[in-house]
Amino acid sequence: MERLSTSNLKLGIIAGGQLGKMLIQEASKWDIVSFVLDDDEDCPAGSLANHFVKGSRFDFDSVYEFGKLVDVLTFEIESINIEALQKLKSEGVKIIPDPDILGLIQDKGLQKEFYSKNDIPTARYILSDSDNDIKKALGRGEISFPFVQKLRKGGYDGRGVAVIDNEAGLDSLLEGPSIIEEKISISKEIAVIVARNAHGDVQSFPVVEMIFDPRANLVDNLICPAAITPGLSEKATKIAAQAVTQLDMVGLLAVELFIDDQDRIYLNEIAPRPHNSGHHTIESMITSQYEQHLRAILDLPLGSTKLKMPAVMVNILGEEGYSGPVLYEGLKDIMAIEGVKIHLYGKKITRPYRKMGHVTIISDTLEESINKAEAVQNLIKVKSWKKS
Ligand SMILES: Nc1ncnc2c1ncn2[C@@H]1O[C@H](COP(=O)(O)OP(=O)(O)O)[C@@H](O)[C@H]1O
Ligand SMILES: [Mg+2]
Questions:
Q1: For ligand 1, is residue 189 a contact (CB within 6 Å)?
Q2: Which of 95, 101, 293, 380 has the highest Cβ tally under 10 A?
Q3: pLDDT digits (tens), the chain, 388 positions
Q4: Which domains does the chain have, with CATH numbers?
């Protein structure tokens, strides 16, 4: 990317959430000119972007006009108007990752077909268009309880996913085209972030282990490196590299996997962008996921993914019972702990379980990071003077 050295490369990012914010923070180090499209001027990346453009990522004209302003267009979220991206691509705008890959990933059904076609291990599934289809498949014995239903489009953070354990659970089936998957006896959920540039170079970050908050179905905290055997870690890394290579994509790919109680690995889902499971890389790795994404999309040499220090990442989520202007409690107390790094996203309004920020804790040993993370979780509270 020759323009990089002239300091006027215009990078467009669709959506201005926290991932966009952290991407801009890296881009500014290389004097890249950032443009952000979002319908909310108070979004986390809004005040940081060199150019903020107000508009909806779902709207054809907004996305199309935005794409015309920049040299390279990327995104920090999957749900975007694809038709506008396709038109921009046909007119020669550089969009990375490619809109075709985004189209595949927007649809969990197409994702699953991609895994099956490419011999990537994944939970067994069928596609269904309605709850009638599901009941018929049950009748024919094609699926059995317990199973997991996922809407093909639009789900995130557990929304659009239903676990159906028995006949009575059929009342909570979701409406719309979906995939029906066998329920895996999960022993651990892990993630591998992998990057690929246009030269086909691939570089993986160490495996992370995700620990979920069962109430919110959100990743509560995450440890790196994952406490798994080197053999499993190698397998997971291979699957991630296989996925990014077989997709023939450029950019960052976050790969979520399950390990079951027999130590079998399944690929669950992928996201073609920086990911929540890679926040810790800012402090714990030689290269952060955001820098790596930039290196990949600008076809630069990929950076080292060596771990500097074992890390735990704790999400800062809105407390239950508060909805309104945000007030943070305990920031000073956690700042006093060595190795605690706070990231506040700048969201003005808190809601129960809203992702308001995160804390990365780095120490010489994982055990020490885990202990400090527990203290952090007990000290930090996201409240508001307004109760809900
Ligand atoms: N086949 C499955 N078996 C058991 N649990 C599952 C299965 N699929 C998903 N889950 C659980 O539901 C969570 C959300 O599902 P996921 O496919 O990752 O959707 P989302 O897009 O909401 O992240 C997973 O992290 C996992 O805890
Ligand atoms: Mg997921």
A1: yes
A2: 293
A3: 556 655 789 999 999 999 999 999 999 999 999 999 999 999 999 999 999 999 999 999 999 999 999 999 999 999 999 999 999 999 999 999 999 999 999 999 999 999 999 999 999 999 999 999 999 999 999 999 999 999 999 888 888 999 999 999 999 999 999 999 999 999 999 999 999 999 999 999 999 999 876 666 655 799 999 999 999 999 999 999 999 999 999 999 999 999 999 999 999 999 999 999 999 999 999 999 999 999 999 999 999 999 999 999 999 999 999 999 999 999 999 999 999 999 999 999 999 999 999 999 999 999 999 999 999 999 999 999 988 8
A4: 2-95 (3.40.50.20), 124-182 (3.30.1490.20), 186-384 (3.30.470.20)
Half-sphere exposure of 299 (CA within 13 A, CB side): 11
Residue 108 in contact with ligand 1 by CB distance below 6 A: no
Q: What is this structure's pTM?
A: 0.96
Integer angstrom CA distances of residue 364 from 189, 230, 378: 24, 20, 22
Q: Which ligand is nearest to the CA of 150?
A: 1
Residue whose CA is closest, atom 23 of ligand 1? 157
> Tokens in use for 13?
């990012």
As a whole number of angstroms, the distance between CA 62 and CA 81 comes to 9
